[in-house]
Amino acid sequence: MSGFIAGGQVTSESVPGTHINSHPFWPSIDLDKLRETLRIDSSVTPARLETAVVAAIISINRDLAKWRVARQAEGFTALAGVPDDDRLTNVERVHLYVRAVECAAGAEVCERYRGYDTAASGGKKADESAPTIDDYRRDQRWAVRDFLGSSRTTVELL
Q1: Is residue 130 scored above 90 in pLDDT?
Q2: pTM
Q3: Can you say how many angstroms the Cα of residue 50 is from the centroid of all Cα atoms in its chain?
Q4: What does each C-alpha distance from 135 to 15, 41, 43, 63, 141 come to in angstroms?
């Protein structure tokens, strides 16, 4: 029998602070802050968290690519430098970008760890995490739509 217990807290001493940078226009993502915000414990290794965050950044950057290109054509080199408009401030835009990345990464982490425990308790945990995955995906879409000033509602006539 092993004395190892997964699920302990990650401290700043055990994993040094790491930021993930993508395109220079977008803010970096602080992995320590993301881990704290999403309450991700040490059962998710730093390498796996980094992989999830990089995938999330790629997805969100693609969703916002046309908006970024338009702002860069206006002469802005970073999101923080884009002036306020009638609907959003700089702080709100940065928050929504980071939120979209966090939610996308959170959904991937939840999806990847569903099958970690194959016992009956693992199935129960997977069932409990399913709404969380859906919630993360919804919040990701909402953050991107809020960023772009789009409606959160999609209606399709059949």
Answers
A1: no
A2: 0.78
A3: 11
A4: 28, 19, 21, 19, 10
